[in-house]
Amino acid sequence: MDEVFAQSKNFFHLPLNEKMKVLRNEKHRGYTPVLDELLDPDNQLHGDYKEGYYIGVEVPEDDPEAEKPFYGPNVWPADGVLPGWRQTMEKFHHEALEVAKAVARVIALALDLEVDFFDKPEMLGKPIATLRLLHYEGQISDPSKGIFGAGAHSDYGLITLLVTDDVMGLQICKDKDAKPQVWEYVAPIKGAFIVNLGDMLERWSNCLFKSTLHRVLGNGQERYSIAYFVEPSHECLVECLPTCKSEKNPPQFPPIRCDTYLSQRYKDTHADLSVYNKHQT
Ligand code: OGA
Ligand code: NI
Hints:
Jelly Rolls; binds nickel (II) ion; iron; 2-oxoglutarate-Fe(II) type oxidoreductase-like isoform X5; oxidoreductase
């Protein structure tokens, strides 16, 4: 975690023109500038006051699997710009997946499923798993004016493993339906993962596990975090689990393929890539 934070700082300290060379591509890999993402359009004036960097599962261009929307080669800062950077990120990506699988086994048991339910090939055997470095520049948020580090949202997949530095900022709302909503800070714990439940888990479990509504408020201090988003295979049909429905408790969501669902969620929250054409040389 310490190494990833150190290398994340090295990257975000680069001049903007250097970072724009590794701008996010259509496979959701690479750099996302400040305001690229708008998570809560109903309550936000602009996009999020954060910049980020997406690193997915590395699949070489000539592998047939690279045709899938969330598979393909990553984009990396040019050799020599940030020595050791790629190795640090790949190591974290690898190890975080094992942590996620361990958490998924606990979730499986809690849902009365076989312990290895999420280990199957169509589940986390061939996952879509994305490491995202985040940097909040120190803008002060003002909810009444619609200014947020990250607008209120829940993540899309099974779970997210989140590591934060020691600057307060992350808030969760435990009761999404309460009016008005009550927001609580989540205190950072050194060396720990914060586990946010995602919307696919809410769909699988028929709302037994509700996804975690969360947001980030800036307090004027610079802040770094590391998110690791965990989703099943592209083809996985996310549908109400047999242990989570009954005659009295029918499924609340229709089945949906993981890649279809994710593509829509990314499209809804990220700027169209054509807005960046003016930056290209
Ligand atoms: C996210 C997120 C929280 C944080 O990237 O989805 O909620 O603390 N990040 O940066
Ligand atoms: Ni989130």
